[in-house]
Amino acid sequence: MQFDWDKTIKEILAEKMACQACGTLGDEMIVGYTRNAEAAEFAPRCKECTDKTDCDARKLVVVCEACARKFRVNGAPMDETGMMAVVMEECRHNLEDSIDYLANYWKEEVEVEYDDMSRGLHEVDPEIFREEDSWRMRLEEEYIQLHRWFREHGQPIPDPGWRSQYVEEVIALGYTTLLGD
Ligand SMILES: [Zn+2]
Ligand SMILES: [Zn+2]
User: Fold this and answer.
1) pLDDT tens digits along 36-92
2) Ligand with an atom nearest the CA of residue 40
3) Residue 29, by phi and psi: left (phi above 0), alpha (psi -120 to 50) or beta?
4) How many angstroms is it from 146 CA to the middle of ligand 1?
5) Which ligand is nearest to the CA of 30?
6) pLDDT tens-digit profile of 113-128?
7) Ligand closest in space to the Cα of 69
8) Which ligand is nearest to the CA of 58?
9) How many A from CA of 63 to the centre of ligand 1?
């Protein structure tokens, strides 16, 4: 009988979590937020930050205890399921922000004319709309992956009603979403 080393190692690793900063493995990691600029080097949402030396954004990170201290992470120790719930919550916040922007926030930018405020962003500034729309699509793809993770691991989706509420909001704005119809 052939021994499938690759698979075995992967299975062992799958039951562990890895520190995003130093790679240490563990059953639990600190999951939380930091504004530390150095954390932009490994924070998932900062992959596309152009100036990582100057990023004071609130960053969600998953780190070991030593790195939590080093990067002053405001968080709590969690297992994989707890971590995935926080990641899903953050994805939902990002989607809500995107919808708020499409519905209202863009109208409050100083350069927007009063008469344009009754129109949609896709009419007033198609280019900015396309940018926002593709960001939202990427978040929705991420959401679908997270959803799949909960299903594959037999874990209940936290606050499952969120999804249909989000879909209604997007459709009310006259836009489409990958999360339903
Ligand atoms: Zn670490
Ligand atoms: Zn950043």
Assistant:
1) 999 999 998 888 888 888 898 999 999 999 999 999 999 999 999 999 999 999 999
2) 2
3) beta
4) 24
5) 1
6) 999 999 999 999 999 9
7) 1
8) 2
9) 5
Contacts by residues 126-130 (CB-CB < 8 Å, ≥ 24 positions apart): 129/102
- Of the ligands numbered here, which is closest to the C-alpha atom of 65? 1
Structure tokens at 73: 């992470």
Structural contact between residues 136 and 98, judged by C-beta atoms closer than 8 angstroms: yes
Distances (CA, A) of 143 to 36, 87, 121, 126, 129: 26, 9, 24, 25, 21
pTM of the full predicted structure? 0.85
CA of 110 to the centre of ligand 1 (A): 43
* Contact between 99 and 166 (Cβ < 8 Å): yes
Instruction: Compute CA distances 146 → 65, 151, 175, 176, whole Å.
Output: 25, 9, 23, 20
Element (H, E) at 73: none
Query: Look-up: residue for tokens 């606050």?
Result: 159
CA 106 to ligand 2 centroid distance, Å:
22
Query: Which ligand places an atom closest to the C-alpha of 46?
Result: 2
| CA distance linking residue 69 with residue 89, whole number of Å | 24
